[in-house]
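retry 2 of 3: previous attempt timed out while embedding adenosine-5'-triphosphate. Reduced batch size to 1 and resubmitted. Inputs unchanged:
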Amino acid sequence: MAKVHLEDIKRKFNNVTAIEDISFEIPDGEFWVLVGPSGCGKSTILRTIAGLESATSGKLFIGDTLVNNVPARQRDVAMVFQNYALYPHMTVAQNIAFGLEMRKVDSKIIQERVANVARSLALEHLLDRKPKQLSGGQQQRVALGRAIAREPQVFLLDEPLSNLDAQLRDDTRAELKQLHQELGITTIYVTHDQVEAMTLADQIVVLNRGRIQQIGAPQSVYARPANQMVATFLGSPPMNILPAIYNDHTFDVSGQSLAIPAEMTQKVHLRQGYSFDLGIRPEHITINTDSELNEQNAAILSVDVKLVEPLGRETLIRAGLPGSTIVLNVQVGGNVHPHPGDRLYLQLDLNQLFVFDPKTGDRIL
Ligand code: ATP
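retry 2 succeeded.
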């Protein structure tokens, strides 16, 4: 195991800056997830740590060693890709053992390690099969097993579950978490899937356009996003964003007034007459029977139901503000079933309301 430390890493491809200002330190044994939309630079960071790309500038340490000029195979990291290429002519056991044999590890130790890895990944009954006799999920477990068998200091995973179907993905995700709890290898995991990020990570690093937006424990990043990009990227359905104009403790949202308690507006300076973006998550909205408030620190918006999606445990509603193009996602209990065209009164929990600067996207409140 080893800590991984990036100091002001930048990578340019000709004139394109893929990543810049990338600095973080992953303590020994932690599981960190790099997450962000396509093209934000996740894979470039991972490949730089693996030694498959070189940094244009900045310093990269694995353990206490500066590894900028250390070739990939000497970095003692193992990487698993989305397209896990197994050797088709070898059995599962031979695939898992391959890296160890290349390193001329003693054959007894190889046997032991293959047996251990097969046990932790539930591959024991498949050891004599060839890859084409395995399901996609089993093949992916073999690819993980091959990486784990090397007992690397650092484990790098680039979207390892994205080729699996939904059920297998959930199962393998849980297995990965379990495996990390058992082995404690420092792990860096790249995904654009926010569920994977939220469930697997000790810490997540949210990236956008080659730069870090926020680093933190998943729950705290979800609860206190640094900016609008982070706020809308984490959470499904995503946070609602409502353009509004502020005046005298009140936001005007497309002609409807949201009165804000004085103690909230005192915390920050909101300029009179200026535009802001309000953020509220779908789960922080409830449905009121009429336009009267029955909670403190809440505000009401009238909306018209456009779409209802019953999911069993919960119901997702898409509802539009009358006379505007603004549509809200609302997540309520599975026993609530409005109809398209119904007028609803949405109660917004103002303790959960965010205010963003529409120019910079930074969170103000
Ligand atoms: P995805 O989720 O789609 O895999 P990503 O977040 O992993 O995306 P990267 O693959 O790291 O993103 O790419 C970051 C940026 O760098 C993109 O704009 C990409 O086009 C660019 N880039 C990556 N590799 C190269 C390359 N070899 N040559 C030129 N540009 C590249």
